[in-house]
Write a structure and sequence with these properties.
The protein is built from 8 helices and 12 strands. By secondary structure, it is an alpha/beta fold. InterPro entries: CheY-like_superfamily (IPR011006), OmpR/PhoB-type_DNA-bd (IPR001867), Sig_transdc_resp-reg_C-effctor (IPR016032), Sig_transdc_resp-reg_receiver (IPR001789), WalR-like (IPR039420), WH-like_DNA-bd_sf (IPR036388).
Length: 237
């Protein structure tokens, strides 16, 4: 994979940081590191980061807090490292902004594979469409190239996976997609997700772009079939 990608590795265990950094650099990536949440946010504000490997248990600021702050403005992909392995905890990780997760102890080789796969999904060519789409007289604005979504002019932080799902809807307005179709179009057939993951993405996207998430006007549930996007008053810049 092209070594243009810069990865931020955040963990308070020095040995983990050293090993992960060595493996990623061997694979051709540029790697910078942090051992606490405050340093991670400071580096993120100064550097162009393409992916973050983020431990949950950090000094100064927790991984959850770091993730929330980054998600306020950025869709950069995040792989979360957690000691919690059950499905509800994984779903919670996705809900707060993670795109993927690994349970400690983990295989560093598997982490590298997941990094490569997430970068490939995130930065692959997006379905051609206008650079900027606006809906409902500017209520919602989506910058495709910069991966920025704004609600009434204010940037809202979608995860890279949430942005991929939203992009599928934008490229196919009014088309109904099943969960399986959304996964295949957004992430490819090799994506290792599960059914509830798609529902979680839809829920979090609605929380960010809808005025009333329980009464959505953009992403509508078609019971027994899936979801579709209603492009009301669409304008193209």
């Amino acid at each position: 994979m092209n070594n243009k990608f810069k990865i931020l590795v955040v963990d308070d265990e020095e040995k983990i940081v050293e090993v992960v950094k060595a493996y990623l650099e061997k694979d051709g990536f540029e790697v910078i590191t942090a051992m606490d949440g405050e340093t991670a946010l400071n580096l993120f504000s100064k550097e162009t980061i393409h992916l973050i490997v983020l431990d949950l248990m950090l000094p100064k600021l927790s991984g959850e807090e770091v993730c929330h702050k980054i998600r306020a403005t950025s869709s950069v992909p995040i792989i979360m490292l957690t000691a919690k392995a059950d499905e509800d905890e994984r779903i919670e990780g996705i809900s707060i902004g993670a795109d993927d997760y690994l349970t400690k102890p983990f295989s560093v080789r598997e982490l590298v594979v997941r990094v490569r796969a997430l970068l490939r999904r995130t930065y692959r060519e997006i379905t051609p469409m206008a650079d900027i789409l606006t809906f409902n007289n500017g209520d919602l604005e989506v910058d495709i190239k910069k991966m920025i979504v704004k609600k009434r002019g204010e940037a809202i932080g979608l995860t890279s996976n949430e942005f991929k799902v939203l992009t599928v809807f934008l490229a196919n307005p009014s088309q109904v997609f099943s969960r399986e179709q959304l996964v295949e179009k957004a992430f490819g057939i090799d994506y290792e997700g599960f059914d509830r993951t798609v529902d979680t993405y839809i829920k979090t996207i609605r929380q960010k772009i809808e005025d009333t998430p329980k009464e959505p006007k953009y992403i509508i549930t078609i019971y027994g079939m899936g979801y579709k996007f209603i492009p009301s008053f669409i304008e193209v810049k």
